[in-house]
Every structure is written in structure tokens, then in C-alpha cells.
Design brief:
By secondary structure, the protein is α+β, with helices and mostly antiparallel strands. The protein is built from five helices and six strands; from the N terminus they run βαβαβββααβα.
């Protein structure tokens, strides 16, 4: 099993939407590095959901339910999507400032590559995020 983080824009589709819907096709990724990360996702992988905009926090945990397939929103047939299901909210939101100022988390692509929307998370980072967000 691998761990990932996806960034969402809550004005388009955020954690609350995924929680309400239960499962969704994760479409609209139009960055080559993010696409490569999507292609590495396997069913059962765990995903942190990070809301951008005002929140700038990790708010929930999702799981990959379907691996990469053609993105139905892409007319050019160059891009892929995965399916995600909501698992649960984190115990408390973990903000970008906290991540940026926490040893071991400050090196995450979330800090280094702020425009990247899909990124890997190490097991040690995953465990630390669950600990700091008080998620059991």
C-alpha cells in the first residue's frame, strides 16, 4: 500500500463534497507530474485530502477504489483519473503552517512544490500526519 496527498479547491470540489458523495471520479488533473502520480495509485492506497483556499489544511482521508483510467472530462484523451472514496475526517485539521514547521513534514512536496496537486507521502509522513491531526 502507498500513501498520497491530493489537493482540492473547495469552491470546485472539496473534502466536504467527497464526504457527502461518498465516492467520486477524480478528474481534471492537467499536470504531467500529477498525472504520473495518479498513474502510480493502486486500489486500496490511502489518500490525504488537502483543501486549498482559506482552509489550507488536511481535512480528511480517502482511499483509491479504481486505478488510473481515461479521464472522461478530457476530449484529447491524454489525461487520466482515479476513483476515490471518503474514509473519514481527520481528528483535527492539520494546517500548511503546521506542516511547514514540523520536522519530517517540511520536506513534503506540499511545501516544496506548492502547485503540484497529486503527490506521494512517505509512510513516516503519513504516520506523523495522523499523530499530529489526532486521527485514530
Amino acid at each position: 500500500m502507498a500513501y498520497w496527498l491530493i489537493k482540492t479547491d473547495p469552491s470546485d470540489y472539496g473534502w466536504e463534497d467527497l464526504l457527502k458523495d461518498g465516492e467520486t471520479e477524480w478528474t481534471g488533473i492537467r499536470n504531467f507530474q500529477a498525472r504520473n502520480n495518479l498513474s502510480g495509485m493502486k486500489a486500496g492506497d490511502k489518500v490525504l485530502v488537502y483543501n486549498t483556499q482559506e482552509d489550507k489544511s488536511i481535512l480528511g482521508i480517502a482511499e483509491v477504489t479504481r486505478e488510473a483510467a481515461q479521464d472522461p472530462t478530457d476530449e484529447d484523451k491524454k489525461w487520466i483519473s482515479v476513483k476515490l472514496k471518503a474514509v473519514k475526517p481527520v481528528g483535527r485539521p492539520l494546517s500548511l503552517d503546521e506542516i511547514r514547521n514540523t520536522h519530517g513534514l517540511a520536506v513534503m512536496p506540499l511545501v516544496d512544490q506548492p502547485r503540484l496537486s497529486v503527490m506521494p507521502v512517505t509512510e513516516a509522513q503519513w504516520d506523523a500526519i495522523l499523530k499530529y491531526s489526532k486521527t485514530t
